[in-house]
Amino acid sequence: MHENRCIGIVGCGNMGFALAHRLSLYGFTVLMSSRCPDKHNDREFEIASTVECICRSPMIFVALHPEHYINSLISHLEHDPSLFEGKILIDLSNEPLDKSHLNDISNAERLQTAISNAFVVKAFNTISSFAMQSITAGESSNVFVASDHSIAKDKVIILAREMNFDAFNAGSIHVARHLETDTKSLFPQWRIPIIVTFVVLIIWLTYTLCMNYIRTRTTSWNQLFLHMVNEILCPSAITMLAIVFMPSNFACIFQLAYGTRDRRFSKWLDRWLLSRKQLGLLAFAIALGHCIIIIILVSPAYYSS
Ligand SMILES: NC(=O)c1ccc[n+]([C@@H]2O[C@H](COP(=O)([O-])OP(=O)(O)OC[C@H]3O[C@@H](n4cnc5c(N)ncnc54)[C@H](OP(=O)(O)O)[C@@H]3O)[C@@H](O)[C@H]2O)c1
Q1: pLDDT at 178
Q2: Residue 58 pLDDT > 70, yes or no?
Q3: Cα(15) to centroid of ligand 1, in Å?
Q4: Residue 203 class from Cβ within 10 Å (0-12 exposed, 13-18 middle, 19+ buried)?
Q5: Which atom of ligand 1 sits closest to the CA of residue 107?
Q6: Alpha helices of the chain — where are they, by DSSP H?
Q7: 2: pLDDT strictly greater than 50
């Protein structure tokens, strides 16, 4: 890294400037590029044309939206096919919101195909511009680096570490497909545990309605809500706890049946085992709700009302 600490950044947007601040904080010289360099009157960083930025920097961050790759980057190949020769292009992009016109190939793979003489590396796309700019941000500092060019990948890993990130080798450029979609999924590991919790609550709601309030109605109407919620939460918490502990027992049974610890569990058991933390936290939340309602129900103030 030390032979040339000039890093190029194509695109003067949120991520471009966040990167520039971070890089300059860790001692790098930053050369930014914009469609209109004169438009930005930022005196902190040098802003040049895209061609000049690419010529002067061995490593270039592409801080553009992927739909602008052709007009801002690839179009320069027409005038100078060797412009990107040996350059490391770090693709930061995530999957565009409107992907109706795109096939399954990732932005990084598309960029590598279009500029075949450059070394395209997918990295930093899981870091927000806020976390990029602030060294004290509580967000994850994991940078996953994927590329088909091992030397370029190693250089980007070293750069990420010098920028005080935890960098990991994520494999080939093919992995970019997962990295680009990962940031778009909201609470990816929580979806199934939340569905399971709703199913458990609905089952116990149906049971409670049938057993207590349709056949025999013993509770006064003004106390019906809390009583009913309590009767649902209590068995739901116990059921959830059973769901949390059950997969470990299944795992033991499978290991005994296989006669080895080294064979992988089937997919459904693997996912169930990996969801135990989320299921446990949801079980805790239900049990907490049950405890709070119990405290309200046994308080003299509730009955006197
Ligand atoms: N923001 C984040 O937190 C974040 C996090 C991870 C990854 N990313 C990725 O980083 C990339 C940039 O995101 P951003 O938030 O910095 O976007 P942005 O603020 O909208 O900036 C994008 C830059 O692209 C250039 N641009 C805009 N319209 C263009 C056009 N029609 N043709 C050519 N260039 C155009 C502009 O630079 P000039 O006007 O200077 O040319 C603009 O500043 C995206 O691919 C995004 O997925 C962003």
Answers
A1: 87
A2: yes
A3: 7
A4: middle
A5: 45
A6: 14-25, 50-56, 69-72, 107-114, 129-133, 150-162, 176-182, 191-208, 224-258, 267-274, 276-298, 300-304
A7: no
**Does any ligand 1 atom lie closer than 6 A to the CB of residue 56?**
no
The yes-or-no verdict on residue 264 having pLDDT over 90 is no
Of 12, 64, 120, 125, the one to substitute when testing ligand 1's pocket (max ligand atoms within 8 A of C-beta) is 64
pLDDT of residue 305: 54
Compute how many other C-beta atoms are within 10 angstroms of the C-beta atom of residue 16.
Answer: 24
User: Does 49 contact ligand 1 (Cβ within 6 A)?
Assistant: no
Q: What pLDDT does residue 303 have?
A: 65
Q: How many CB atoms lie within 10 A of CB 259?
A: 7
The fold of the 6-182 domain, in CATH, is Rossmann fold (3.40.50)
Quick one: average pLDDT of 69-90? 93
pLDDT tens, residue by residue, 161-188: 999 999 999 999 999 988 888 766 667 7
| Burial of 37 per CB tally in 10 Å (0-12, 13-18, 19+) | middle
Q: Nearest to residue 144, comparing CAs of 119, 120, 125?
A: 125
115 lines ligand 1 (CB under 6 A): no
C-alpha of residue 192 to centroid of ligand 1, in Å: 34
Q: At what angle do helices 224-258 and 267-274 cross, to 10 degrees?
A: 130
Distance in Å, CA 279 to ligand 1 centroid: 38
Where does the pLDDT of residue 194 fall: very low under 50, low under 70, confident under 90, or very high at 90 and above?
A: very high
Annotated domain spans of the chain: 6-182, 191-304
CA–centroid distance, 64 to ligand 1, in Å, is 4
CA of 244 to the centre of ligand 1 (A): 43
Amino acid at 258: Y
